[in-house]
Amino acid sequence: MFRCRPASSTESALLADWAQAMAWETEQKRLDPAAVEAGVRGIFENPTRGAYFIAERDGQPVGTLMLTYEWSDWRNGDWWWIQSVYVPPEHRRQGVFRALYRHVWELAKAMPGVCGLRLYVERHNEGAQRTYESLGMVDAGYRMYEAALPRGR
């Protein structure tokens, strides 16, 4: 039903649009379009930062996720963080994320240095939490804290 594949740099504008839509829908945050576009290009310019994957149906993009990498000294391996998940409203509840997740899960299992998949989710996004749990993911018991630095330093 879905074909999952690495995204191409030629799809940067679509990925940036989807990232902005996701930020608005999930957190009511308006992002700086130029910053998002540069951030998406930054993955393609430096693949050690991460990778984008796209799900297609009938040759048309219907969803995406981005992976980033975090070294774990405890496990002597990399966690792959799932981020920037977006499925346009007309394609939701049809298994798009499930297909993307299974795709990256299989890639991770084939890589000896990967110790697992992680993601974060808004506390009130119960629908997403149920989806992640249905895929076998569990609440890791952490809360996330951050200290953002001002831009343009």
List its traits:
153 residues, Aminopeptidase, 5-stranded mixed β-sheet
What would a concise description of this structure say?
The protein is of the alpha+beta class. Helix content is about 35%, strand content about 25%. It has 4 helices and 5 strands; from the N terminus they run βααβββαβα.
Overview of the molecule:
By secondary structure, the chain is of the alpha+beta class. The chain has a single domain, classed as Gcn5-related N-acetyltransferase (GNAT) (Aminopeptidase, 3-Layer(aba) Sandwich), CATH 3.40.630.30. The chain contains four helices and five strands. Helix 3 (96-110) links the parallel strand 4 and strand 5 (114-119). The longest helix is centred in the N-terminal third of the chain and has 16 residues, at 12-27. It is globular, with a radius of gyration of 16 Å. The N and C termini lie far apart (47 Å).
Largest sheet descriptor: 5 strands, mixed
Structurally, the number of domains stands at 1
Question: Averaging pLDDT over every residue, what do you get?
Answer: 95
Q: Given the C-alpha coordinates, what overall shape results?
A: globular
The poorly predicted ranges are none
- Please give the radius of gyration in angstroms: 16 Å
Q: Which range does the strand content fall in?
A: 25-35%
Structural class: alpha+beta
Oligomer: single chain
Number of helices: 4
Strand tally is 5
Q: Spell out the CATH superfamily.
A: Gcn5-related N-acetyltransferase (GNAT)
CATH class designation: Alpha Beta
Which CATH architecture is right?
A: 3-Layer(aba) Sandwich
- Please trace the helix and strand order, writing H or E for each element: EHHEEEHEH
CATH topology value: Aminopeptidase
Instruction: Give the % helix.
Output: 25-40%
Distance between the termini: 47 Å
Strand order in the largest sheet: 1-2-3-4-5
